[in-house]
Automatic annotation (TrEMBL):
Protein name: TraR/DksA C4-type zinc finger protein
SUPFAM superfamilies (alphabetical): Glucocorticoid receptor-like (DNA-binding domain)
GO molecular function, a single term: zinc ion binding
Zinc finger DksA/TraR C4-type domain ranges (all copies): 74-106
Renumbered residue ranges of the record's region Disordered: 1-31
dksA C4-type Zn finger ranges: 79-103
Keyword Zinc-finger: yes
Entries under InterPro entries matching the protein: Znf_DskA_TraR (IPR000962)
């Protein structure tokens, strides 16, 4: 099923705040673990590669923090591009996203 078409099953169209927080906590913990692993492996790999990996992980952590703020202010799950609900399937895969697939394509 495409992530840019609405689902027709009875599953809620939005994640609950609790579900969103759980997914975001998991995402944050995973990224922090990755950052630690990159730090530990840094001695054996090229410094430029390690720096790029750290930058990417830090960017995602910032996006996770921004998603927590959207949960708090009630805008989590709404696309910043078109203001429509982001399909729950997309949020399950990428819980920190702030765009639906069509708007992400346009932004990218």
């Amino acid at each position: 099923m495409s992530l840019d078409t609405p689902r027709t099953e009875t599953r809620s169209e939005r994640l609950t705040a609790h579900e969103a927080r759980q997914r975001l906590e998991h995402e944050r913990a995973s990224r922090l673990t990755q950052l630690q692993a990159v730090d530990e492996a840094g001695l054996d790999t090229g410094e430029q590669l390690v720096s790029a990996q750290k930058d990417t992980i830090r960017r995602v952590l910032a996006e996770v923090d921004a998603a927590f703020a959207r949960v708090q202010d009630g805008t989590y799950g709404s696309c910043r591009g078109c203001s429509r609900a982001i399909p729950v399937e997309r949020l399950e895969i990428l819980p920190y996203t702030s765009f639906c697939v069509p708007c992400q394509r346009d932004a990218g």
